[in-house]
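Following up on my earlier thread - several people asked me to post the actual chain instead of describing it. Fair enough. Here it is, all 129 residues.
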Amino acid sequence: MEQVVSHLNDNWKIYSFFVSVMLMAGLYWLSKYFATKTELAAHVNSQEERFKLNELKFKDHQIEHYKLRDKVHEIDSHVKHLPSAGESAALREEIARLNGRLEGMEPLFKQVLNNVNILFENELRGDKN
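Reply from S.P.:
Thanks for posting it. Predicted structure:
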């Protein structure tokens, strides 16, 4: 044991140099691993700015959401007043029936138009019947 102590006493400069190099390497590694106060403050400020920006975006999104919700409610209220499938089928059937009646009256309309044309023609000629 005495030899170890005498060896350390003889070479204390070399061992202290190695220990100080190791401590410096450890501090360098710690400085790379952990953030400094200025870096931390910059990071906190950037996070706060990002949160404020996200909050503004969220409020804009929320306003847009409320507008869309109101439109959906308006569309729903209009959809409630639309006719059902049975009502629209009955309406189509009624239109088809009326179309058939109008087509049946077409010869009568042509006859009335002919009579009106004959009357105009007679009026223009000056014929008196």
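The two ends are 157 Å apart (CA to CA). That should answer part of your original question.
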